[in-house]
TrEMBL record:
It comes from the Bacteria. The keyword Lyase applies. Gene3D superfamilies: Phosphoenolpyruvate-binding domains. It comes from Streptomyces luteolus. This is Isocitrate lyase/phosphoenolpyruvate mutase family protein. Keywords: Lyase. PANTHER family: CARBOXYPHOSPHONOENOLPYRUVATE PHOSPHONOMUTASE-LIKE PROTEIN (AFU_ORTHOLOGUE AFUA_5G07230), PHOSPHOENOLPYRUVATE CARBOXYLASE. It holds the Pfam family PEP_mutase.
Length: 289
């Protein structure tokens, strides 16, 4: 009788584990579908970029359904250069920490060039990000030495990721404008990345309205651009056909600037007046997830 009870208990436990896994898988699929649909709404997806758990949690609490990460913010926080493939572990750790938090924020991860030139290694890393809860990944073709990766190599990375994690949103980035190299190749590079399976394409540094309109006219997937202080507004970008607008490292740099301004103000005679500052308790709450 004891043996039969043990068998029954084991079967019940196995059934519960299976049901939990199936529920988690369904929730993951739904989250990735929701993120993809945000690129096809009436307005472009405005994607603010976080650099740690607190910034991601604060953005989610402010009502942003989706949040990206900024590779510059993650790298600077560690004291290493951005774009040098030095933050793979920290980026994965951030994805895991944000993925554990409440609220179901949709997280897209800036993974530089995938932290490897091997498509299989990039795909394995993307699988880890997906397992951590990420719904999207950014892969860039710019290299630390300021050159562009061969088109076919970057296309192979994209194809490998899509084969490994078909429903992970791959935002394929070309740095032709960001690095100011071979602007004329922007459309052809992005078209090749679309062919490789990219779900969206990204051209940071592109802000000229005519050039943006020309690009959206030939692309098959949503175009992502960086918000530029002197560039088109969100409404103007929408009219040009842009479907996603990222803030990149803007929030991180703004936070650093505010910290310096505050420190200088205290040194020079007093606290800045008028600016709202989050309370100690509000920040504490961000860490309770």
């Amino acid at each position: 009788m004891t043996y039969e009870r043990d068998e029954t208990a084991t079967a019940v436990t196995a059934t519960a584990v299976t049901a939990t896994a199936e529920t988690a898988a369904a929730e993951t699929t739904a989250a990735r579908d929701r993120f993809a649909r945000l690129h096809h709404g009436d307005e472009p997806l405005l994607l603010p970029n976080a650099w740690d758990h607190a910034s991601a949690a604060a953005l989610a609490a402010a009502g942003f359904e989706a949040v990206g990460t900024t590779s510059l913010g993650v790298a600077a926080g560690l004291g290493v250069p951005d774009g040098a493939a030095a933050t793979a572990e920290a980026t994965l750790a951030l994805a895991r920490r944000v993925g554990e938090g409440p609220g179901g924020v949709l997280l897209s991860v800036d993974a530089e060039g995938g932290f490897s030139d091997g498509p299989a290694q990039v795909a394995a890393y993307a699988r880890q990000l997906a397992d951590a809860g990420a719904v999207g990944i950014n892969l860039e073709d710019g290299r630390p030495d300021g050159t562009l990766a061969p088109v076919e190599l970057h296309a192979a990375k994209i194809a490998a990721v899509k084969q490994a994690v078909p429903d992970l949103f791959v935002n394929a980035r070309t740095d032709t404008h960001w690095l100011n190299r071979d602007h004329a190749a922007t459309a052809s590079r992005l078209a090749r990345y679309e062919q490789a399976g990219a779900d969206g394409v990204f051209a940071p540094g592109l802000s000229d309205p005519d050039a943006i309109a020309a690009l959206t006219a030939v692309l098959r997937t949503p175009l992502n651009v960086l918000a530029a202080p002197a560039g088109p507004t969100l409404r103007e970008l929408a009219a040009l056909g842009v479907r996603r607008v990222s803030l990149g490292s803007l929030l991180y740099r703004t936070a650093l600037t505010a910290a310096l301004d505050t420190a200088r103000a205290v040194r020079d005679g007093g606290l800045p007046v008028g600016a709202r500052v989050m309370s100690y308790g509000e920040v504490q709450e961000l860490g309770r997830g």
